Amino acid sequence: MAEKLKKAVIFDLDGTLSDSIHSIKYCADRAVAGFGYGPFTEQQYKYFVGDGAANLIRRALAAGGDEKGLHFEEAFSRYKEIFRENCMYKVTPYEGIEELLAALKERRIKLAVLSNKPHAETVNVVETLFGKGCFDVIQGQKEDVAIKPSPEGVYRILEQLGLTAEEVLYLGDTSTDMKTGKSAGAFTLGALWGFRERQELEESHADAIIGHPMEVLKYIQGLDENP
C-alpha cells in the first residue's frame, strides 16, 4: 500500500539535531557536586537523558548513591538555574544537519522540534543554532503537555501544522523517541549519530534506522518507493 507523501519532519533535539552532551554534563555535574556526587562521564549522561530534566537529575543522584532522591528538590532547582545560563555550552549541530534542513526547505517540507528539554531553553538552543524562523514549530517541555514518550507533543505539533501523523516523519535517537513517534502514528526514523546504539533503536521497533542526516530525504517521497 502506498504511503502518503511526507509533508513535515519532527525532530528530537538533544542527540538528533544538536550535540549537547557537553552542556548537559557541565550543568548536571555542577548541580549534584554540592552533595558529593559526580562528576559523571559523558557516556553515563547519554543514558541519564531522554525523559526530561527532572529524570536526568534523579538518575544522576541515583548513580551517586542517592537512590531515594533525598536531595532531588534542591539539586533540580540548582540544575534549572545553571542550565538557564549555560544551555548553549559547547552545543553544536551534528554534521549534516544544516545541509538536511536546507534540503528539506527547498522541498517545502515543514520542520518541527519536539524536546523534553524545558521550552524556553529548547527555543534558545534551536534559534541560536539555526536562526529564528528556521523551524515552523518548536515544542519543548511545558507543564500542560505530557513529556515524551507521550504522543501529546506530537499531536500539538500536528494541530499547528494542519497535518496528520501519516504525513510526517519522526526522527530521534532514543527508545523514548521511537515510542513517541509510533504511539502518535508517525513513521519513525532512528538516528545512529546520537546518544544511543542501534540495538536500542531496533528493540524499540524504529521503522528505519539511518546513519547520516541526509538519508532522511529517501523517506520523503513516499515510502513505497524506498523499501
Strand order of the largest sheet: 5-4-1-6-7-8
Which geometry do the CA atoms define? globular
Q: Helix- and strand-based class?
A: alpha/beta
Q: How much of the residues is beta strand, in percent?
A: 15-25%
Sequence-ordered SSE layout with sheet pairings:
Elements: E1 8-11, E2 18-19, H1 21-33, H2 42-48, H3 53-64, H4 72-86, E3 92-93, H5 97-106, E4 110-118, H6 119-130, E5 137-141, H7 152-161, E6 168-172, H8 175-184, E7 187-191, H9 198-203, E8 208-210
Parallel strand pairs: 1-4, 1-6, 4-5, 6-7, 7-8
Antiparallel strand pairs: 2-3
Helix pairs in contact: 1-3, 1-4, 3-4
Characteristic key phrases:
alpha/beta, Rossmann fold, 2 domains, six-stranded parallel beta sheet, two-stranded antiparallel sheet, 8 strands, 15% strand, globular, disordered C terminus
Describe this structure as you would to a colleague.
The chain has 227 residues and is of the alpha/beta class. It has 2 domains: 8-19 and 92-225, HAD superfamily/HAD-like (Rossmann fold); 21-86. It has 9 helices and 8 strands. The protein has helices at 21-33, 42-48, 53-64, 72-86, 97-106, 119-130, 152-161, 175-184, 198-203, and strands at 8-11, 18-19, 92-93, 110-118, 137-141, 168-172, 187-191, 208-210. The strands form 2 sheets. Strands 5-4-1-6-7-8 form a 6-stranded parallel sheet, sandwiched between helices. Strands 2-3 form a two-stranded antiparallel sheet. Strand 7, helix 9 (198-203) and strand 8 (208-210) form a beta-alpha-beta unit. Helix 1 (21-33) packs across helix 3 (53-64), helix 1 (21-33) packs across helix 4 and helix 3 packs across helix 4. The longest helix has 15 residues, at 72-86. It starts with 7 loop residues before the first strand and ends in a 17-residue tail after the last strand. 43% of the residues are buried.
